[in-house]
Amino acid sequence: DVKVTQSSRYLVKRTGEKVFLECVQDMDHENMFWYRQDPGLGLRLIYFSYDVKMKEKGDIPEGYSVSREKKERFSLILESASTNQTSMYLCASSSFGLAGGAGREQFFGPGTRLTVL
Amino acid sequence: GEDVEQSLFLSVREGDSSVINCTYTDSSSTYLYWYKQEPGAGLQLLTYIFSNMDMKQDQRLTVLLNKKDKHLSLRIADTQTGDSAIYFCAASPTGANNLFFGTGTRLTVIP
Lengths: 117, 111
What we know:
The complex is a heterodimer of chains A (117) and B (111). Chain A is an all-beta fold. Chain A has strands at 4-6, 10-13, 19-25, 31-38, 42-49, 56-57, 65-70, 73-78, 87-94, 107-108, 112-116.
């Protein structure tokens, strides 16, 4: 079974702190993603990566950066946390899609609920 | 880019059928997915359909795809209280590495 793990389920930080959210997957997937989830807004893509050291901006990259030094690990960084970054953060991974499979199905971690005070 | 839309809420009585609808805009989407998110958890893939199919059935779940209207639906037969969750529709356009998600539909099952 594919497993995507996130470093924390709950996190409380103060405004201005630097925050690291870590995500690890064990299926040798090429693609990894960071989303934030807010009520009524669904999932919004922050950043994604399709290879080590590669990254692409999603829909809402402002205030965030990412790092992918190893294939299995994708980190989301809030350089200076603000209260409007209080949210649920979800990490996901996928392969490039194999014929006969479920295409680019994404596998999700359990999420990190971040509160910025 | 792809735009995926769903209604936000649906309430049904236990034992009834639920139908969750979704529309998308990119006709090149080759796979369309339904994910389920239970409270406090991440998303789990419920089912998917390839674009050359009109229908897919898996136990209590039926997915219908109307490619002409770019409309996808998920029907849950004999809805149970354990089906209460948020259901996300997602599309995979050709050439995109990422999926495009709808806002999610919160299904509430009334006992």
